[in-house]
Write a structure and sequence with these properties.
It comes from Thalassobacterium sedimentorum. By secondary structure, the chain is mainly alpha-helical. The protein is built from eight helices and three strands. The longest helix has 38 residues.
Length: 222
């Protein structure tokens, strides 16, 4: 008989590892493929935002690999070094994706607004994860720990669910803008697609993982 911990936790964990391998493989491949236009990620992000009339978002370089993100609070778009300075298809795809978030912010895209409103409560709920994990494994998953786990993972699951349309929409905008603005040719879109589609798997995996833990705690409730 398949136990809840195998079905709800181990399988999502395997999916998550697979998603991480996919994104590393796709990014690793296409970060080596230069675009014909030799436009940097920074220039691509700037062009995509300018096409939407956005002039007040700062583009900065950040440390790490695939640490790229858009900060709506400070209107700052951060690109990792390879994507900020690079001219690869992967760099252009990631940069345009983050610029897509800036466009969402300007247009008050409803899922993004909802995600932003959930950030404080999600951050608060995440602080209890060590308590749940250490408390559960060392002292057993009692009623208090289980109920706390349900509450925390309910918040995290909703947050990850809301994140999905935000990320998918940003990628859709990125692909359309890169071709529409002439930053890449139509046939170069294959590399961008594979990079952004692989990245999308990680968001799906994060949702599946949170949902798995939520279902595990619900199944453990007596």
């Amino acid at each position: 008989m398949i136990t809840p911990i195998f079905f709800f936790i181990l399988i999502p964990m395997i999916v998550g590892l697979w998603a991480q391998m996919k994104v590393k493989s796709a990014y690793g491949k296409y970060v080596q493929v230069p675009s014909r236009g030799h436009i940097t990620g920074r220039e691509a992000a700037q062009a995509v935002m300018a096409s939407a009339g956005i002039q007040d978002v700062e583009i900065v370089e950040c440390h790490g690999t695939l640490t790229d993100h858009y900060d709506p609070t400070n209107k700052r778009l951060a690109l990792s070094q390879d994507n900020y300075r690079g001219t690869s298809l992967a760099a252009l795809g990631v940069a345009a994706h983050e610029a897509g978030h800036a466009i969402q912010h300007k247009q008050e895209y409803a899922p993004l607004n909802l995600r932003m409103s959930l950030v404080p409560i999600t951050g608060f709920a995440s602080q209890f994860l060590p308590v749940i994990m250490f408390g559960g494994f060392f002292f057993g998953f009692g009623a208090i720990t289980i109920n706390l786990g349900i509450a925390v993972y309910l918040v995290l699951t909703v947050f990850q669910l809301v994140t999905l349309p935000v990320e998918f929409d940003a990628s859709k905008r990125a692909k359309a803008q890169l071709v529409g603005l002439g930053i890449i040719d139509q046939d170069e879109l294959v590399g961008v697609n594979k990079t952004l589609d692989a990245a999308a798997y990680t968001y799906v995996a994060a949702f599946v993982s949170s949902l798995g833990w939520l279902l595990y705690f619900l199944a453990s409730r007596r």
